[in-house]
Amino acid sequence: MKAKLLSLNVDKSMSFSRFQARLVSSLKSFTGENLIADEFEDIRDVFMALQDALENDELIITVVDSRNYIRYKNALIQAFGNEAEQNSAVLNKIENVTELDDKRKKAFSTFPAAATVFVSDDGFYSGFGLENGSQCVLCLPIDNNRIDKILRDGVIPFLNNTFGSQVEDKAETENKKKHAEKVEIAVSRILKSNSVVAINGTKNAEVLKSCGDTVKGFNDAFIFTPHVEDKGNVNATEYTAQLAKVSLDLSSANIGACISDIYNTGEIKYICIAVASEQSAVVRKLYMSENETDYEFIESAALELVELIGEKALGRRSVGIEITDEPVVDNTITEKDKKPVGKKPLIVLAIILGIIVVLSTVLAVIYKTQGENGELSNLLNSVFNKQEEQTTEPTTENIDKPNVSVPVINKGVKLKFSDFIVREYLLSPYSMLVSKDTPPEYITVNGQKLDAKDAIAKIVTSEIDVNDYSIEAVKAQAVAVYSSLKYRNNGFVIDGIEISDVYPDEVKLAVDSVFGEYIAYKNSVALAPYHRVSANQTLDASNLFPHIKRVKVADYPDASAKDYKTVNEYSGGDVKGLLLQYDSSINLSHNPGQWIVVKDHDGVISNDIGYATTVSVGGVDYDGLTFRAKVVGEALLPSHCFQVEYNSTRDVFIVTTYGQGYGVGMSLAGAKFMADNGDDYKEILSTYYADITIVKEG
Fold first, then answer.
1. Inter-axis angle of helices 66-79 and 668-676, to 10 degrees?
2. Which terminus has fewer CB within 10 Å in the chain: N or C?
3. Are the CB atoms for 183 and 221 separated by under 8 Å?
4. In this structure, are 16 and 113 located in the same domain?
5. Considering the domain boundaries, does residue 446 fall inside one?
6. Are 264 and 145 in the same domain?
7. What is the pTM of this model?
8. What is the DSSP string of 120-133?
């Protein structure tokens, strides 16, 4: 069969080689050879290559990175002259994602009417196939985490039907054989010991079930109990142990077991597995490697759980975190604890209180501080009570963040431009000023006279990921920076901000292309604050600036941004020192759990969580903006959408924040998402700033 593989891969990520290898090995039975992708960075070039392939090849596979996927899909619909329709299976998976507006739901669920849709696990970036006689075109996302299901349940059956084949995914078949062998050993041990194992019916338990569905005796050795979701004040390991114990109570089994969902701290992913008796439970934390997909990680965790169950059936003492009703705390981690998972706190049985770690070959694991991420520019968000993170990716939650001692910082640290601007105009007196109508030749930053375009490029670069940006979003940010500088009307002099020493050539070109453009409201230059990531919605600042209203359009990409949620831990001594450094008269003689209390918030995330409006510090009330800016500082509190919990046993404050920056004006994460999906900088700016015009000087 003549086949062609075409790739629109603007990101040029290292993960593409792995994706390509997975795709090619699975389709080799159809293609007859190891295809090498013809890679393109421009959608027009892909279509030219597609046109040639349609004249010569029977099977054409197009793979597209996420930033261009929706745009490419729409262009393909138009190019083929197809009718478009929403796919109900995809829509059902995404319709309850509250962060996603109707426009984006439609974009993700719309396909050519004649297409066979390959639905992904979460519905997002689902692939599809089009056939015409003996010719077939596939459109697939470059996504290592979604491709396994798309191939297994969509592409392979589709091609078998199209070409009249009975081909299996060889990679998948080989994996099943290996997995079955491990399950067989465990089943043999369980049956020989006259044991029965009750598996808690978590989402990932289905993967374990699929590993054993061809193994003789599996259904005699294993039963699957309902999953009861009732979150209590326990950590990930305790929660998983509880679920294993619950399975015992819900069954006649003598061994309980559980595999959690994936927990994501932002830096690492892990899964917890647990095996329990009536007296105790053993839990292992398994950490995901860089080369694993989510599905591969879940499979390996399921197989390790099978091995742990086999050890339990033989009566062996297992390595891991042993949880009993005798509270003993030890934070070391064994070599066996080498991958991650998770769900949350739970439920009916309150038997689990302590943690004892049994070491075999010990690997000392020292966690790095999550700390500030250098992005001091973005959202002020507040979180109260425990809330499951809502994302378009599989749900994750930051649990068990390691104890980190953070020294009291110097409040004179330079700020990101976006934080500086908000401080200057929302926390200080201001006035509307009139400026010149020609662009400056120079901008003075931190006492250094810089070429104006270079200065803006350096300011912009300090607040973006230089490995993952979109040109139209950069243009929007550059216009916002220039507008805010122009609004200040002080000879384009600014001090105390952080800037980059270097910047990508593309950023400089983007800045040059919009230099001299600013946003105007009612014929006057307008302040254009922005932030890195919002907490579901931007803040309403229309009482001060009528053009800056609450915006929800970018909720989905913000919630899935890597820095959307952060968890930090600070020692009681460091928190005390920080507060007294701000005001030595603050009364901290009472319970540390009452030192910092979020009293009121705007409910932007839920009834329990929002941007803090009133924060009590030692009994003294501050507004949320002031608390972040002046009491603790932007470096330690990424957002004023936050939750503070005090752990008296460990004497640590656990601070969970949503968003990055003050949340006012344009979200850079949302801007990037819009740009990736075809919106230009003017559309982006008009989304985040209401009733504006874009004026070109000079």
1. 30
2. C
3. no
4. yes
5. no
6. no
7. 0.45
8. -SSSTT-EEEEEET
